[in-house]
Structure formats: C-alpha cells, structure tokens
What we know:
This protein is α+β, with helices and mostly antiparallel strands. It has 12 helices and 14 strands.
Amino acid sequence: MGQQLAIGTFGQVFECRQQGSTKNQLLVKIVPKDRHPLMISASTSQARGAFGRRLAASPANIEEETFEFQRYMTALQSLKHENVVRYVQFFADSTSFYFLMERCPGVELLEDVTTKDEWLESDGRLLTEQMLEALRYVHGRGIMHRDVKLENLIVHRPQRSTNDSRQSPVILKLIDFGLGRAIGGVGVTGAAGTPGFAAPEVYMRGFYTEGVDVFSIGVVLYILFTGRPPFRAPNSVQNINAHLQCLFDGPDWSSAPFPLISRPGRNLIDMLLIPNPSARYSAAKALEHAWFKKGVPETKVVLWRSSTSEVQFLKVMGVWDGSSKSMQSLESLKMPLKKVSEWSDDAEDREQSLILQALCVVLCTRWQLQSASRIQMGMIVLFLLCRMASLSSLAFAMTSA
C-alpha cells in the first residue's frame, strides 16, 4: 500500500498496486465497519446527529454483513462503463472494509471548474451528457449513488490526437459509491448525501428513488452554467427548514448568466431541479432532451470565468460547502434535532477555528484595531462566533446594543 491520498467522511483512500507491478495503478478505500452506512445498526443510526456526526455516549454496535450489503457489493463489482469507476475487488477483516478500485486519471470536477479559465455553454453540455450516461447505466443496474457532487466526478482532458477526430476532449467518471444503495421496490429511506446537492425528498420522512441523483446532476449543471452553487448548504440542523424552502422555490432564472444560455439549456436544468420527484426527468429521459441533439443552436459567449467565480472564492477560503459535511441517518425533519447535543473531533472544527483567527487578524490590520478597547474586540469576536455557529439572532442583538 502506498501514499494516503484522501480522508473522507467514512474512510481513507490510499494508493496501491497489484503484486508484481511496480506502478500504483489502483486505489483502496478503507472504511471502518462501524462507519459504513449499510452496516450501522438501528440503535447507532438513531443516535447519530446531523451530517453523520456520532453523538457522545452513543452505542457503537454494528450488525453483521446484511443481505442488502452483500447484494450491493456484488452489484458494484459488476459495473463496467466508461463513465463509472471500476470496482476491482472487495475485502473485509474484523474491523474494516477494503474497496479496491481503478485509479482514474484526471482531477475532481471541483478542481477542473476552478482551473479552466473560461466556461461556455458547450463545456457544460459535454460534461453533463457523460454524467447522465453514468447515471443511466448505474440506475439500470439497480444502484443509486446518493452523493453526486463535484468531488465525486473525475475529469480527464487527454491530449487530442490529430489523427483521431472522434476522440473526446474530456472524459468524465463517476466515483465513490460509498453512500450508494441497491434500489428496492419502493425506494430507500434515510438521509444521505451532501447538503447543497441533495434533493428535497432526501430530507423527508419516507421513501425516495434514484431521482435524487438526477437532482444532484441539476445542481452540478447549474454550477457549470454560473460558477456558483444554486442553493446554500445548511450549516446547522436548525437551518434545514429554510434550506428546504429554497429547494422548493428553485433558483432565480432571471439572474446572470441565464439570459445568455440557450432555451433548451435553460429548460433542461429546470427539469432536473424540479422538487417534485415524480415530475423530474430520469437520467434516460434527460439524455433524450433537445439540448443534446446535434445542430441545436447554442450561445458562444463566455458565461463565467473561474478566476472571478464564487466557487473559486469559496474553495480558496476553505469554506466550500460541497465537501464540508455529509449527512447520514438524519431520520426526518420532524425530530427535535435542535435539542440534540453533538460533538466532533474532526478537522472541520479546527478549520473553523483557524478561519475565525484569520478573520480577527484581518479585522485588526484593516481597521487598525490594535488600540481598540477590549470590549470592542470582544464584541467583534463574539459576533464572528455567532455567525459561524449560525446564531444570527444573538449576533443581531449584540451588534444592535
């Protein structure tokens, strides 16, 4: 096993290679059994708080490998599609699962979005078509992904051969099926995914289907069109109701650059982001849309530039919401979530602390507050703390005093 490449919500990813090979051609994701979504027992699941954080004093018992888990892993290893990561093998010991998969060339779509300078409508169409092809395939194989986002899409832009005009200028692959599920007869339950990308029905009590993946593709397409996320991810459980309202209201289609986008392009994204899952397009239906037909007129103007985009700003500031939190086992919005006490020892809290310190330093330098009184400085720090904790009402009261 080689270098560690990433640490996610549920496990770690390392380079690895097959015996007898000198190249790191594969990746292995190691997931502790007590953190895998399909292995959490009912008691542990109910004791988890928002965004997958384990609550203090919650039991850590897990079930044995269920039939559902075994069926899902078998289905994963059968996936063979040019736009889907290949799962080579699966291992388990007494404490962890080991998912052996191909190493896809390229970078995360988040990285591609922030490094490619100019974005045209045609750029979004080429990527979206491959995303939908991946979903049509996995949905047809009885699998839903449940966490489609920029970080789970790998983009490779190979050097084009002058002798092969059929070579695509970009190849996209859907990766990380860690939150996926086998599609049942009526769907699945339980909130999973990334706030800001998750469909509204994921937050509700009851069953939902693979249509949640299509909604997430709509969010990605919106970002490819505008350089900004359509919905602000809730930064606490108390903000979920407001977030849900935004999902049902939908984005502002009159804002720039939508007037510059072709009518078919605007219509497709509208059909992908419909909050009613029964009216939302399926992946197969979306691929039949007029936007993907040859000869359809499209705008040639630059829609946005990565250097001045909101996604770039959020990424540089380290507060990009797309990968900051993941939900797991949030049973419904009707439970008294605001009364639940949570704890977390992950890097997120340390990151917020560093951001707060940096903001204080900037304030001191920019506003020359070195000589300010302790009361003034205390009120500023308290205001920032309130904002980061989403206690806007308290912050308003303090600044109004």
